[in-house]
Structures are given as C-alpha cells and as structure tokens.
Amino acid sequence: MTTASVSLGTSVSSQSRFMQLAMAALLGIFVVGFVGFSHLDAVHNAAHDYRHSMAFPCH
Amino acid sequence: MNLFRNVVFIAAIAGLVAGVVLACLQAYATVPLILKAEVYEKAGGGHQHDHAATTDNNTMSSAAPATNAMSSAAPAPAESAAPAEEGWAPADGFERFAFNVVANIVTGIGFALILVAVSEFAGGIGNWRQGVFWGLAGFAVFTLAPGLGLPPELPAMPAAELLPRQIWWTATAVATAAGLGLIAFRKSLPLAILAVALIVAPHIVGAPQPESFETPIPEGLHHQFVVAVTVTDLVFWLVLGAAVGVVRGRFTGTATSLRDSFA
C-alpha cells in the first residue's frame, strides 16, 4: 500500500486509493440496498420477483 | 478519480452481463414458481402478501393489508399507468418481466461494484479463474449464509417482521464476509478461529422466525424454489466473478496504465 501500488493500471496514493475503492463499494451497497431492501411500495413491487429470487427478505 | 471510474466501468460491464444471465435463468427457474405460489396466495384469502399481518397489534397492521392486498392482486391496467401512485405494481406479463430484468441488471452492477472494490483491496481479480473463486465467496456471503437462517421464501409464506429479518440478513452477510476475509488473507491461527466464530455467530443468534409456519404453499413447491434460487444465484456469482476477471484483464492487458488509455 505504498504510493507505487498499481491498481487497475493506475498508480495512486494509498489514501486516495482507499477512498475511491470505499466510495465504489458504498455506491454498490447503496444500489443493492435500494433495489433489494427499500420499503417503498413501488420499489418493492417493481423488484418483487427479483427480491424473492435473490432470497432477500421480502414483504 | 481514475480508479473510481475504472471500478465503476468494470462493474457496469460485468454486472450487465451477469444480470442478464441471471434474469434469463430466473425467467425459467424461479419466476414460474413465484407465479404458482401467487395462485395459492390469492386462493387462501387469509394469507395476503402482507406477512407483517402475522405481527399482531401492530399499528401498521390495520392499514397495511388494504394497500398490500391491492398491490399483490393483479393490478388493473389503468392502475399500472400511474407509476408514482402508491401500491403501483408492474402489470403481469411483459412489463413485470421487463422490471425484473432491470432489477437484475441494476443490482448486478451493485454487487459487481462491491466485488470489484473489495477485491481491489486484495490486489484485484487477475483472470476469470480467480474471478470464479471470488464469485464463490460472494455466493457464500450473499446467498448461502443468509439463506441458512432465512431460506428463500415464496409469496404467501409466513415470515417474521420485515425489518428484523433485513437486519439479520445484512449482519450475517457482513459477518460471513469478514470471516472469509480473515481466513483468506490473514495467515494466523487465532484469526482463523475468530473467523469461524464470526461465520457461525449469526446462526447461533438465529434468524427472526415467524410465529407460525402454517402456509398454503405445498412443501414440494417451496423445496423446488429453494433449490432454484440457490442454483441460479450460484451461477450468477460465478458469472459475475469470471466477467470481472475477464473485463479487468482486458484493461490491464491492453494498456500499461488505464489512466493513459482513458485520458
């Protein structure tokens, strides 16, 4: 985790690298959380079959 | 922000591929079973879509059955034309299928973002074979471990209140991921023991269970559904991991620096 760390071909400082990866992971968690866990009725109904098929807690 | 952009780019392609594959598998394997279960759901009047009804004297329970009964029943075409309305649901048939495909792709990209970001911390997924193993880990974290306590459920099946289950599901996924990470990336026996404890702990605590397991759904149908969900999710994760490995390999293989290739 030095400044020379090569990740996806780009060399970035370890702090910036951590922040960017953490942001990407958070974005992913947000997306999955919204589609799979949102309590909004419309979102639930739209993704209903998907939620059941991914074994997300549903209803 | 090059790294972030590249992660998003790789996740978008891999998630799109795996999401489309999963949507196709679901159309044949899981959705027909859900539709079958909905026949039982509608037939057994008492068992509405709303499993929160199992929680008595809840303030929600007076209002919820009304709205959920509407949403679970096949919506009238006029209803489905107003997407912003509460209780809206896609119309059966193509619209419902299309929304399922969209949900698959969107969450496929979401899972891919998590997978790519986490794997970059460990040096990145170098090729499709490494990707398959990362995919197996994803399957264990997001399907296998939560599915032990909260098996895939069909509509009309009894379940505990939604929020505690979602909390248990999330906590189990996080604990399992942490445990697998400790085993894979820390060469230390005490940490490996801690990892096993982390993986086992959610199941000792136990998932929130319904008060009664009575359901109009035949046991055979549910079993079929559990198998279908588990197998389709396994394929999804293997494809997702492999796709990340291939796409990432293309980028790091064709240019020494992604910054150069995209700038």
UniProtKB/TrEMBL annotation, chain A:
Transmembrane segments: 21-40
Any matching Pfam family: CbtB
Keywords annotated in UniProt: Membrane, Transmembrane, Transmembrane helix
InterPro entries (UniProt xref): CbtB_put
NCBIfam families in the record: CbtB
Identification of the protein by name: CbtB domain-containing protein
TrEMBL record, chain B:
InterPro entries: CbtA_put (IPR012666)
Pfam name, any one: CbtA
Renumbered residue ranges of the record's region Disordered: 46-66
Keyword Membrane: yes
Keyword entries, A-Z: Membrane, Transmembrane, Transmembrane helix
Membrane-crossing residue ranges in chain numbering: 7-29, 97-119, 131-150, 166-184, 189-205, 225-247
Name by which UniProt lists this protein: CbtA family protein
Species in which this protein is naturally found: Mesorhizobium abyssinicae
